[in-house]
Amino acid sequence: MLFLLGLLAVNISAVYAGDTTIQITSPADAKIIRIDVQPGDFIFSGDKIATLKKDDGTIIILKSGSGGKITSLGVEPYQKVHKNDVIGSLETSSIVVDTPSSEASKKLPSLTELGKNLYKTTGIYGIIDGQLTKDWTVGIGRVLMIVVGLTLIFLGIFKKFEPLLLIPIGYGAILANIPMAGIAEPGGILYYIYEVGIMTGVFPLIIFMGVGALTDFGPMIANPKTILLGGAAQFGIFTTLLGALFLSDMVPGISFSIRDAASIGIIGGADGPTAIFLSSQLSPRLLGSIAIAAYSYMALVPLIQPPIMKWLTTEEERNIKMVQLRHVSKLEKILLPLLVLGLCIVLLPSASPLIGMFMLGNLAKECGVVDRLSDTIKNSLMYTVTIFLGLGVGSKLSADKFLNLETLGILALGMVAFCIGTAAGILIAKLMNKMSKTPVNPLIGAAGVSAVPMAARVVNKVGLEANPQNHLIMHAMGANVSGVIGSAVAAGVLLALL
Questions:
Q1: 203-227, pLDDT tens digit by residue?
Q2: Residues paired with 23 in a beta bridge
Q3: What's the rounded Cα separation, in Å, for the pair 294 and 308?
Q4: pLDDT bucket at 80, cuts 50 / 70 / 90
Q5: How far apart are alpha carbons 1 and 75 in whole angstroms?
Q6: What are the pLDDT digits (tens) for 260-297?
Q7: Angle 163-176/140-157 helices, nearest 10 degrees?
Q8: By the 8 A CB rule, do 318 and 463 touch?
Q9: Which of 34, 450, 416, 379 is nearest to 227 (CA)?
Q10: pLDDT of 190 above 80
Q11: Kindly report the CA angle at 388 between 396 and 279, in degrees rounded to 5?
Q12: d(CA 349, CA 178)
C-alpha cells in the first residue's frame, strides 16, 4: 500500500512539473482571417487564438486547449496556411501569472511621423492597405459592399421596398464595412447584437410574436380552402433542399450538408424570422447569408412575384371575382390560436417555439382584455427588435464574410425557392378554381408565401390592374397567414428530421 501511494505521488509530481511547449498547427487548408493573440500573451483553456476560413466558406475558430503563454506566432492576417502548418507555439503552465505592465514614456514623434500616423488611421489607408497587403475583400470589397448598403437604403427610401427592413439592413452593411472600425468584430456593437439576438434565435421569436399580434385569421377561418395554398407555397422549400445538395455535387468550392441545404430551402417560405430561427439551429455558419437572402427576397416581393403571376395566369383568370367572405365570430378567433397550439403540441413539438410565440401574439390581440400588452407587442416591442434585427443582419454583409462562392449559391437557390413557392401556390389555386363550386382567382395562390402582408398587397395590386373592381386583399390574406403557419410547420418538420 505504501509503495502504491509513493508511486502515485511521483506521478502527480510529474504532472505538475511537466509544463511543456506545444506547437499550434492549422487544422485545415485555410486563410487566417483574424488573430486574437500576440507573442507574450497569457491565455486560458477555451480562449480564442485565431479564426480561419476554408475555401468553401467554412469558418474555423481555433481555441486553446490549455492555459499558458504564447511564445511565438509565425502568421499574419489573411495569410494562407495548409493543414498541419505550424502557426505558433504555446508554453503550457499549470498556473498562469499575468502581470500587467506599464509602457515606458516615448519620445514625441516629429510632425512628419504624426502626419503619417494620422493618415494610417483613415479609411482611405485602410482600404488601400487592405487591397495591397491583405485581401481584396478588405480592400475594394468593402467599397462594393458599402455601395450595396447604399442601394438597399435607396430602395427602402425612394422605392418604398419594405423600408422597415431595408433601411436598417443597408445601414448595418455600411457600418460593418467601415475600415478599421471593427463595429461588426468581437467588441463591436453589431457583433453583440448579432450574437445575443440572432444567433440565440431570440429576435426572430419576438418578431413572430409581433406578427401574430398584427394578424387577422378571419379570412382563413372564413375560407379554410386557403390553408391548402399556404401549404402549396412551401413546395419550394423541399425542392430547393434537393437543389442545394445537387449544387454541392456539381460546383467545386460549394459544400452544403443536408442541414445546410434545409436551412437554405426555408428561404422559399419568404419568412425571415423562420429562416433565421431554423438556420441558428441547423446551420449557424450560414446564418448570415441565409438571413440576408430571406429578408432581401421578402423586401423584393413587389418585383419578383408579378411577372410569375402574369406568366402563369390568363387575363380571364385574373379577372375572376371571388364571393364575399362570411362573418367570423370573436369566439372562433379566440379558439383558433389555442387549437393550432394544441395540434402543434400533439403532432409537431419541434415547431412550438415559432408557433407558440405567433399564437401568443394573436391570442393577446383577439381576446380583447390585454390591449396594452397587445399594443406593446405589435408596436414598440416589435419595431424596437426590428431595428436591431436589421442591423444584425446587415452586419453579415461585411465583404470578407459575404463575398464568396457559397453566398452566391445561397442567393441563387433562395431565388429559385421563392419562385417555385410562388408558382406552386398559383398552380394549386388554378386547380382549386377548376374543382371548386365557387370561383377562385389563381392570383391568391401567390400569397401562400409567408411574406405578410407584402404578398397579399401585391396580389391585390395585380388583381386591380386586371379589374379595378376586383378587390382580392381579404382572400389573399387568408392564404398569406396560412403561409406563415405553413413555413413554421415546414421548419418544425426539418428540425424534427435533421
A1: 989 998 998 998 888 888 888 888 8
A2: 89
A3: 18
A4: confident
A5: 52
A6: 888 888 887 777 888 888 888 888 878 778 887 887 77
A7: 160
A8: yes
A9: 450
A10: yes
A11: 50
A12: 43
Cell of 6: 509513493
Predicted TM-score of the model (pTM):
0.78
